[in-house]
Amino acid sequence: MRHGSGVDRISFLPENVIETILMGIPLRDAVRTSILSTIWRYRWKNLPQIVFDEKSFPLSKWRTRSDFENKMVKSIDQVLLLHVGQIHKFTLDIDLNSLSDIDRWILFLSRNGIKELTLAIRWNYVFYKLPSCLFSCKEITRLELHNCKIRLPERFTGLSNLTVLKLQYVNITVENFQHLISSSSRLEELVLKELYSCPQLRICSQKLVHFSIDAWCDELYLESAPILATASILLRGESCMEAPIYGAECNLIKVLGRLPSLVLVEVMDGVPVRLPMTTQLKHIAIDINFDSVEDILSALCVFRSSPFLKVLNIKVFLDKYATGGYEQGFWKEQDLNCSFDCLQLMEVTEFTGTESELRFIECVFANAPILERVKIYLKANLKKNQGTAVGVLSELLRFRRSARAEVLVAG
């Protein structure tokens, strides 16, 4: 409203503009907009998106946790009671002990067309057991669960519209996990971090495009994911760590060998020297311990089997206590036979300038005929030394490389 003009501008904003404004501010502020004008009064009741988090209800404003919880429960009850229409997106990301109240809210949401649900329940390291009504929400498309326990009901037939599933610190059995994934026929993105009671993961998903895992896991099998395009794989566990340099299969082979459409992979798991197949990878992000012969050979292994590689991201880390330590003369003894015919961009972070790192980059330069750009980011302790950066750049520029390859060294 312009001062003195008498023109009420905010009352006549388009419906979609008002909704966008209300969804872009904390819920408590959205409720307060009722005082702006009669047109805005209770417009928040029609919002399809409701978020309860620390930003909406900061714990610091209350003298005791008990006061905070009582007010939070009453607020959520009131919002849901007064809400008009369907709630498409609901987020609860806050410390709360009232598990029975959460059950009530999920039951309410399951009857009101919920499509996107995020539950991040942080309470004394106890898993919140999800009520069975959640698994009858056929309209749900996105489900994010933190610190929850999943036990599927006996008559569970799947979440037929689910496209995104993210599980973090979730307790779920092997059987329930496999059933949940295989019965979600439209699943496109799956993110797993720290699963409990689920040492073996078998994934069968015909529509899966993006996959990420960072978990303790004995076995990972992507039995059928024909159009998977990107994967980030960090497996921890005794079986996963048994990745021989020569000979038998390891977990990564079992994964890569079944993914004909995979074009990007982030690898943080050991592999043998040669993979028994050619991948379609075009983008690889990999962590390499340049103090470990095993890590270097594992990386070369993946590169040899990725003839279509265009983008390579390497993160350097050094651990001299790793098995298979690096020795002088290692590179001279290797029959590298590693081609980077399609490589166009290489980026190296946490670079320290050791002989092992330099020889590795020299190898890439010598076998990448169409390489266009190389970016080297120095480790923090080297950034302060201007002479080191100049020295590293001078060394790199001496290496034989593609005529059009630009080399950049940055702090």
CATH class of the domain at 281-411: Alpha Beta
Q: Give the averaged pLDDT, no decimals.
A: 78
Given helix and strand content, the structural type is alpha/beta
Which fold name is given in CATH as the topology of the domain at 281-411? Leucine-rich repeat, LRR (right-handed beta-alpha superhelix)
**Architecture (CATH level 2) name of the domain at 281-411:** Alpha-Beta Horseshoe
DSSP helix fraction = 25-40%
β-sheet strand percentage: 25-35%
Q: Runs with pLDDT <50, length 5+?
A: 239-251, 270-274
Work out the number of β strands: 18
SSE succession: HHEHEHEEEEEHEEEEEHHEEHEHEHEHHE
* SS summary, helix count: 12
Task: Give an overview in words.
- The chain has 411 residues and is of the alpha/beta class.
- It has a domain at 281-411: Leucine-rich repeat, LRR (right-handed beta-alpha superhelix) (Alpha-Beta Horseshoe), CATH 3.80.10.
- The chain is built from twelve helices and 18 strands.
- The chain has a 16-stranded parallel β-sheet that branches. Strands 9-11 form a two-stranded parallel ribbon.
- It starts with 14 loop residues before the first helix and ends with a strand.
- InterPro entries: F-box-like_dom_sf, F-box_dom, FBD, LRR_dom_sf, LRR_FXL15/At3g58940/PEG3-like.
- It holds the Pfam family LRR_At5g56370.
- This is FBD domain-containing protein.
- Residues 337-410 form the FBD domain.
